[in-house]
Model the fold of this input.
Amino acid sequence: MQKYDVIISGGGLVGAVCANALAAADLKVAMIEAGSRVKCHSDDERTLRVSAIANKHLKQLDDLGIKSLIDRDRIGPYNTMQVWDNHSTGKLTFSGQGPDNLGAIIENKWLVSAAQQKLQDAHQVTTFYRHSIASFEQSPRQVKVTLDNADKLKGRLLLACEGAGSPLREMADIGVRNSSYQQRAIVCYLRVSQAPNKTALQAFNHSGPVALLPFNRDLFSLVWSCDEDQYHQWLETDETTFTNGLLAHLRRDFGAIKVVSERAGFPLRQMYANETVKNRLVLLGDSAHVVHPLAGQGVNLGFSDVFELTRQIKNIHLRDDTAVHRALKRYQRRRNSDVLMTSELMSFLHKFYGVKHPGLTWLRGTGMNLVNGFKPVKHWLLQQAGS
Done:
C-alpha cells in the first residue's frame, strides 16, 4: 500500500494548485483525477470558461511557478474596475495600488494545464490520471483509499477538490444547503472597439449583472446573468438582436461590439456543505461552497482554502491526531467565516439590485457614490477580494 501525507481527489483548478502548494511545503502528495491530463497550445481555440484571479493569488501562483507556464495571450491583467447601477446614478471605480494590477482574467483550461504541468517537476507528487476513488475509510490517525482499479493508498489527510458534485462529500454523507438564483449566466467572447484599457466593467440591472472581462486589446469575455425565463431568448437569438439586447443592459457607449465566439450558459446557485471538515476529510473549493459569480469570487475562495490549509498543516506532525484536529479546527473557523461573509454579500447584492422600488433605487445610488468617495472602505473591499 502506497503511503502519502495528503491524498487529493480532483486535479482541476483547485486540486492541481493545492498539490503544488503542498509539494512546496515539502509534503508527499497523491493527486487523483478522473480525467486525462489537460494540455494547451498557443494556437488552441479560446475556451469560454474564465476566472478573475485576484492579485494576491496571482502572486501565489507566480511563487509556485504556475503563472509563467500560461501563455501570456491567455492572461488579461486589469488595473481598474468600473461598476455602475443602470437604475440610479451610482457608480464605483477601483484601481490598483502603484504598479500592481487588481487581478487578471485567465482561461480555466490554461490555468489547469499550467498547474498540472508544474506537477511534473514536483518529485513529492504522484499523479493518478483517469482514476477515481471508489471508497475510503478513516481512523483517528490516517485515511485509507481504494481506487477504481482496486489500488490502495494510505494518507494522513484526504482532500475533496472535485467540484460542486463532489463524490467524496456524498460518500462521507455530508449534506448541503442549496439555493437556486433562478438565473443563468450566458458567456461568450466579444470584440469591443472603444472600451477603456485593462478595465473590468460591470453593470447592475434588475435582471442581473452584466460583466465585460478584459483579455488583451479589444477582446473581452462576457458574463451576462439573466432570469431563467429570458435565458433561452438571449442564448438562441440572432447576433444582431443579442448585441442590441446587450447594449440595452450595459447602457454605456463602448463603440462597436461584435460577438466572436459561440454562446453558452450555466445555472447560478448558492451552496454550502454542512461540514467542510469531517475527521481527516477536508472539502475545498466548490466541493465546500458555490457562490454567485457577480464579483468573480468562486475560484478565489477555493485558492484561499488551499493556501490557508497549507499554512495550518505544513509545520505539524500529521500523525499527531491532536495537532491535526487543532489545525483543522482553525482552518475551518477561518475559512467558514470568510466564505460565509463573501457568499452572503454576493447573495444580498444580487437581491438588492433586483428590487424595483424608488426608495431602494435612491439608496443604492447614494450608497455606491458614498463608498466611491471613501477610500478606506474601497481599500477594505479590495482587501477582501479573493478571501
Summary: The chain has a mean pLDDT of 88.
